[in-house]
Amino acid sequence: MYANPTGDLMYFGKEVRAAGLKPYLTGFNIGFLRYANAFADMGLLDEPLYMCLVLTDNIFLGGHPPSLKGLQSHLDHLPAGKQVEWTSMTYGGNLFGLVEAVITRGGHVSIGLGDHPYNEFGMPDNAELIRRVVVIAQACGRKVATPAEAWQILNPPKG
User: Fold this and answer.
1) pLDDT tens for residues 3-59?
2) Which sequence spans correspond to the domains of the chain?
3) What does pTM read for this prediction?
4) The domain 6-154: what is its CATH number?
5) I need a labelling partner for 54 at 20 to 30 A (CA). Which of 29, 77, 98, 139 fits?
6) What's 121's DSSP letter?
7) What is the pLDDT of residues 70-102, one digit of tens each?
């Protein structure tokens, strides 16, 4: 069971803001996105919202599948009328089949061995996975942000 009572989420939203942090909103399915939208409407979240659209495979089936349709389901339900910076990942599966789709649709890529071991590439480390994503981004004509540029994109709270 995965439980996040609304009251707890509201508490964390307030405390994260009070600590001067930018929340990393994680959405496994449309319900999570609806909460993010409602919390933004209540003034508990500042724009741009930073959302991770999680796709799931193999060991966890509670999210949208790692397919173009699964990704599009998330995109179709991003909070309307709000500035959103989004990233995508696949928990329990290989994200590389969707990296180009994520990049060309304006998203960012969250990838790492903690989500999937990528044994299909031998024994890669996280740096190798990132290098592969950079090659795809460049092939799509997308510049890879520096840490300073990423900080600017997310416009963290001042203080």
Assistant:
1) 788 899 889 888 988 998 889 999 999 999 999 999 999 988 989 999 999 999 988
2) 6-154
3) 0.90
4) 3.20.20.70
5) 139
6) G
7) 999 999 999 989 999 999 999 999 999 999 999
CB 14 within 8 A of CB 32: no
Structure token digits, residue 133 = 């994503």
Neighbouring residues of 83: CB distance < 8 A, sequence distance ≥ 6: 47, 48, 49
High-pLDDT (> 90) share of the chain, %? 75
Query: Can you say whether the dihedral through the CA atoms of 152, 154, 155, 158 is positive or negative?
Result: negative
Helix (H, G, I), strand (E, B) or coil at 120: helix
Structure tokens at 128: 């190798």
Contact by Cβ (8 Å): 121, 128 = yes
Q: How many CB atoms lie within 10 A of CB 75?
A: 17
Question: Radius of gyration over alpha carbons of the chain, in Å?
Answer: 16
> Which residue has tokens 């939208």?
37
Mean pLDDT of 152-156: 81
Closest Cα partner for 29 from 86, 84, 87, 70? Answer: 70
d(CA 156, CA 159): 9
> Taking a C-beta distance cutoff of 8 angstroms, is the pair 98, 90 a contact?
yes
